[in-house]
């Protein structure tokens, strides 16, 4: 609230009409009501106003962009459309008092990525294993509870406001694993989705729905869901038409097909392009898009089979289909080839499908990165992904190749802080801002979040908080799975260490540690050939341990414990040293947070302090299990003689 003070204390003129302009007016009127300013509609004379928010339908700034400037004591935001005005308003809020200080020449702001979406893995029914929200660490769902719509629509509206303030413009309201009740959201329970859409719409957020590929069978009573069957195609066209009758600005469908037990076109001997295009053609007359996920792999593999490599799967399935997808079909690709690990290479799919609209999927919910009990600000990781250039320095960055959008699995629930861990809000905000501008400096975005969250904070708070968050991803990496090898988590819930947790598992995530060495040989010469899925220069860089970056070494190579990293350390000593450092860094972070107690509200401080206790406990457990495991395997002692069990 305090962040709105500079806006609310002033005189504002708003010009333009439409529902989102009403939203803007409502925001400014509310702020003025709290802080004493005044807002006027539709005056022709700008004189006497501190801020003028104007819609000029000239198309100059696109649907969502705006121009911002300050001259002669007046700040102006000019947008070509209502959405742009809303984003312009939040830009002013972000600038705070400085928006009303020095003059600034007009500068244009437009999102680099048109679709900036959060996918909720929210279940309608409570799932016996996954609960209300699959991989949710922020309480229950904002939308569903125990099989019903929660109906707390004001809260959904507040959520839309929060998302607009971060720059997010789309939400998928149900899990990609579509169970029976979620499936019906497409048909007889569509009204519940329409209610959510009505609350999100005033903040420029479009609603999307996950659908099951088997819908024609399970909902429509047809004998098949074959995408080339005429009756099936008609069924989907009818379903899409009914959705648009209820939700005219509906965004489209999200589909997880032939993945982890979800139905898909393979059942009918059809390709994923056939499946996606069938849904795309049902949505096309209404302007909708299908987001088809590329997370397709064999989750029933035999760990004895050394030729199957889960990392290869997305490329192997989808790269041959490049150019076959409809214009309104977007292939939604996880940022790495595996599954949101603390460190993975960037998926080779981004460099392999120039004739396909691609979206990058990241995971704000911290499934493998501490489950919102550990602080792990993912901004630097996401930024590395978005800046990665699959064809080398001359080629485009992933953020530029993501014409289909940027998508994050949501980390939000019904928790009063939205995200369970109050500091995990930084991930939500950073995602939105990087989606708006993938080349943005994540550290600047973090500073924005700190300034907005603690608007009148003394320097001691901002300077204490900044390093806690800035380094938290690398700290988390230091005490968990080393050098890109991934997983080592407890199976099922994925929290806490279990070095061999997935070593003999059908899901296919092995590290192959033995007494001599560790890592997965994914080279083309002697391994699974995954490294060859990259174009030059990366195929060459990753092919050899001599050029592979340290942090990905064990993802690409099986090396002896005595292998010397570019850092000059042996692999085994790196494992020991980083585990100890990681724990020390968390202990230090806990100490710094404790020292900020007088500057943060007591309740919020206690919530974070309690989670730091758990993070310290968890980090020590990781350190000791990983170190002991490798000491026992390798027989190589720690050069510094520290306690390892
Ligand atoms: C929604 C991982 C998660 C699953 C998730 C899946 C996916 O496997 O553990 O919970 O399912 O990814 O992205 O579809």
From TrEMBL:
Transmembrane segments: none
Superkingdom field: Bacteria
Annotated ranges, domain Glycosyl hydrolase family 67 C-terminal: 419-642
Keywords: Hydrolase
Gene3D superfamilies in the record: Alpha-glucuronidase, C-terminal domain, Glycosidases
Keyword Hydrolase among UniProt keywords: yes
UniProt keyword Transmembrane present: no
InterPro entries: A-glucoronidase_C_sf (IPR037054), GH (IPR017853), Glyco_hydro_67_aGlcAse (IPR011395), Glyco_hydro_67_C (IPR011099), Glyco_hydro_67_cat (IPR011100), Hex-like_dom2 (IPR029018)
Domain Glycosyl hydrolase family 67 catalytic as annotated: residue spans: 109-418
PANTHER family attached to this UniProt entry: ALPHA-GLUCURONIDASE A
The protein, known as: Alpha-glucuronidase
Taxonomic lineage: Bacteria, Bacillati, Actinomycetota, Actinomycetes, Kitasatosporales
